Model the fold of this input.
Amino acid sequence: MKIELTAMEARVIGSLIEKQITTPDQYPLSLNALTNACNQKSNRDPVMSLDEHTVQAVLDGLAKRHLVVEKSGFGSRVPKYQHRFCNTEYGALKFSPQELAIVCELLLRGPQTPGELRSRASRMAEFADVSAVESVLRSLAERADGPFVVGLAREPGRREARYTHLFGGTPPPHAATAPEPGAAVSSAPLPQDPSRDLSTRLEAIEEELRTLRAELDELKHRTL
Done:
């Protein structure tokens, strides 16, 4: 199953997946909350500055492809949106929690090393160590309905090769061959950094506060 996304479509889908996992009480997202999620300065690369009109146009295009749907609750006066990208009854694309966390991070931040993915995706799924991330990356690279990720050639000075998602079209010319089963993805795992784990938790709290403020501002605006 091949789904190709533009950079803005990847940001919208990635933001919806992220908020579905990290702030389920605020999901589905209003247009205002989704725009804020797309433009976050944390956990995003590159940082974007999209307006609501642009995000709505992206949503309309994704809706025509049945990748998002408007889903407002009973009595809600604010249209809200949820993805149908994967793990729904409407499509065949299914990911495990660990696979989904990694795909989401790649959609939001682009190419990353297994060590970076372990630090960043751990807010959405549990990974015991970098080896667990490497195992999931191999699974995503070798799935019969994929591949969904590909390894990039290791950059000078880096201990680990980076991986990128394949929902943006054909692999880049500098993509490496997918690792064979059982092959090591990196030469050595990155050491655990407690300060980075704390930073990740703080970022998640800040994201939830931004979402709540956006929802409150929109409700106040509509009641005036």
